[in-house]
Design goal:
mainly beta, 3% helix, binds FE2/S2 (inorganic) cluster
Length: 132
């Protein structure tokens, strides 16, 4: 539910549920998404267009080596991958702020339907770590 996502982070990890079948797609960690809520005024236009009530969603799998992006930098409001310290900016379409990650995290557009957060489409961008 949208109210479960705290304003200003940290991110919550979740698996999307198929809206038709009700099946939670937790069979692969590549389906894992991170949800974070930010002030909509802080989101760039691209990100705001995919957000629902300030909540944005990205793949939780680092684009560098595929680690889970588990850390949150509260002061700068960035995701931090603990493996090699790549930072990603959730308000700016998860661009790489610093670190060895070669590209942004894949984004998942959201919408709110009947009070529930649901995906408004598939991932935008490639999910998973860089090719060796
Ligand atoms: S796996 Fe995330 S920075 Fe290397």
């Amino acid at each position: 539910m949208p109210e479960d996502v705290p304003l200003g982070g940290p991110q919550l990890f979740s698996y999307p549920m198929d809206p038709v079948t009700g099946v939670v797609r937790d069979g692969s960690r590549l389906n894992q998404v991170m949800l974070v809520r930010l002030d909509p005024m802080d989101l760039n236009n691209e990100t705001r267009g995919r957000a629902a009530d300030g909540i944005v969603a990205y793949s939780g799998v680092c684009s560098h080596g595929g680690c889970d992006v588990t850390e949150w930098l509260e002061r700068t409001r960035m995701f931090l991958c603990p493996c090699h310290d790549s930072e990603f900016a959730p308000a700016d379409a998860a661009r790489v702020n610093i670190g060895p990650a070669p590209r942004r995290l894949a984004a998942l557009p959201l919408k709110i339907v009947g009070g529930a957060l649901v995906a408004a489409g598939g991932f935008i961008g490639r999910v998973g770590g860089a090719e060796p």
